[in-house]
Amino acid sequence: MASAYFGIDCKVYMVKVSYEQKPFRREVMRTYGASVTPSPSMETEIGRKINAEHPGTTGSLGCAISEAVEVATHTEGYRYVLGSVLNQVLLHQTVIGLEAKAALDKYGIKPDMIIGCAGGGSNLGGLISPFMGEKLRGENDYQIIAVEPASCPSFTRGKYAYDFCDTGMVCPLAKMYTLGSNFIPSANHAGGLRYHGMSPILSQLYDDGLMEARSVEQTSVFEAAQQFARVEGILPAPESSHAIRVVIDEALKCKETGEEKTILFGLTGTGYFDMVAYQKYNDGVMTDYIPTDAELQKSFDTLPKVNI
Amino acid sequence: MGEEKRIPYKIYLSEDEIPRQWYNVRADMKNKPAPLLNPGTLKPMTFDDLRPVFCDELIKQELDDTTPYIDIPDEIMDFYKMY
Ligand SMILES: Cc1ncc(COP(=O)(O)O)c(C=O)c1O
Q: Could you list the residue range(s) of the whole structural domain that residue B58 is in?
């Protein structure tokens, strides 16, 4: 959309499983003028390598990043742009928090809790930034909660370590909460937020105890999504519904204790591209998957050794 | 303080209320996030290291741990108004 507006070429490497399972997301990008390639492709060195080593792989964000970086660095006039994790993306998404705060300030409302979903962490980082700024400067206090899928639990079960941002190991190393760059979430996971790592900014804030994290299972997420749709009229994206799950849980706790709390949360998108996942939930065939410690350990074992 | 304003179900902002600057929370963090490292040398990535990958302006933002507010370019403001 931005590329079309500014008349810039846009080439997208899209995780193969999403390319196939979410054809309408793909078509939206093509409508705005992007060319979309399923990743891993046979167009890049790293894509061919990944395909040779893992025939029939459905890809991951880490693979797609490797391919995009390869093309950006080898094509005149091309640069790599990504949608999350990096500081620059979180910075841009601070308009979310700044606007939320401006809206609340108009009516003198101060949230007690701020809750958001965390995939790569940029939307949550953007939402909380102005509030976290006040907390860091000692001006105000807020309880801040990141919500992630139990099937891809970077914060709640990951390690805070330097790791590769991509599968091809061509990108810089980032210190973050990570499940290891080889971690590929279970294919039954439909709710997004599948990245193995986490924004380095949020990782540091979490490590410093300035925010919390919870993980939730996808059936409980869709239950919250359905309830929200029926009560608020808005059909939420599965990613956003992770936050909604915890918002409902926290509101119910308040109901029990009689405490009144103002909860701010990020409704990051609508769910119309995810009706296949909703269908699974509605048909009662959605399942939950939680990786075992042994599975996670296998991926942790491949973390690069960095002593600094 | 006078009478409290009634809080509406939805609060809308006008075009004039769109933020004109992004807020860089790193400026207020005592413990800064760890720098990106070059996987070959394990040294922090510099502006020049990142140039083949990212746009110049974005590299400056990526590496900036100290500037609290960063102006949003006018062209982006126009886009924000539209969306
Ligand atoms: C609707 C929606 N919300 C949230 C996210 C998670 O984003 P983040 O990387 O900012 O955590 C995504 C990621 O693709 C998304 O599509």
A: 27-81
